[in-house]
């Protein structure tokens, strides 16, 4: 009489490899979609940031009788000086404004001399959602729009297709 051994139940190596391949494909698709959603979110955030900066620039031009600041640094300083005041101790402070509402990771600050003496910590650079410095173009550079703010976008280079402007080009 022959005794037959029963086969052990379980998965073969080929079945396991197929399952791992399917999981790898699903993870790859999920990462690609997640990256696309993240970049879309960054693009929209940067667009709103540029629009807010354009509004701030228009207020500086209005308050300075039509004088457009010559650079990003001078725009930032002039805008913050418009919102600055001296407290009772003679220390310069700034009222809440578009710049002070930005995350500290999106700005660079340094001490700036104030009119009538004293110094104040001011925002001297604003970054986009990718960490690139936002550029201010005070004269006509892009499609007759001046002044404007430009983000280098995801690739980090100004003058490429993914640039984001404070207006719709």
Helix/strand layout:
Blueprint: H1 13-63, H2 72-82, E1 84-86, E2 92-94, E3 107-113, E4 119-126, E5 135-137, E6 148-151, E7 164-165
Antiparallel strand pairs: 1-2, 3-4, 5-6, 6-7
Count the DSSP helices: 2
Largest sheet: 3 strands, antiparallel
Specify the overall morphology: elongated
Number of strands: 7
Poorly predicted runs are none
Q: Can you write the helix and strand succession as a string?
A: HHEEEEEEE
In total, the number of domains comes to 1
Q: What is the CA-CA span between the terminal residues?
A: 88 Å
In round numbers, the mean pLDDT is 86
Strand order of the largest sheet: 5-6-7
Residues in β-strands, percent: 15-25%
Q: Rg from C-alpha positions?
A: 27 Å
Structural classification = alpha+beta
Percentage of residues in helical conformation: 25-40%
Protein model, in words:
By secondary structure, the chain is an alpha+beta fold. It has one domain. The protein is 37% helix and 18% strand. The chain has helices spanning 13-63, 72-82; strands at residues 84-86, 92-94, 107-113, 119-126, 135-137, 148-151, 164-165. The strands form 3 sheets. The chain has a 3-stranded antiparallel beta sheet with strand order 5-6-7, covered by helices on one side. It is elongated. The mean pLDDT is 86.
Describe the structure concisely for a colleague.
By secondary structure, this protein is an alpha+beta fold. Helix content is 37%, strand content 18%. The protein has one domain.
């Amino acid at each position: 009489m022959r005794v037959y051994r029963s086969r052990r139940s379980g998965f073969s190596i080929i079945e396991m490899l197929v399952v791992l391949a399917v999981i790898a494909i699903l993870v790859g698709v999920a990462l690609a979609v997640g990256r696309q959603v993240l970049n879309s979110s960054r693009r929209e955030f940067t667009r709103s940031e540029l629009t807010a900066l354009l509004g701030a620039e228009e207020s500086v031009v209005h308050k300075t009788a039509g004088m457009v600041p010559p650079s990003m640094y001078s725009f930032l300083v002039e805008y913050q000086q418009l919102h600055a005041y001296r407290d009772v101790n003679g220390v310069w402070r700034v009222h809440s404004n578009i710049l002070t509402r930005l995350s500290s990771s999106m700005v660079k600050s340094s001490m700036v001399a104030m009119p009538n003496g004293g110094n104040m910590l001011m925002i001297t650079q604003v970054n986009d959602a990718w960490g690139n410095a936002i550029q201010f173009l005070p004269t006509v550079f892009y499609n007759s729009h001046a002044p404007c703010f430009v983000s280098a976008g995801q690739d980090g280079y100004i003058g490429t297709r993914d640039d984001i402007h404070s207006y719709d080009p």
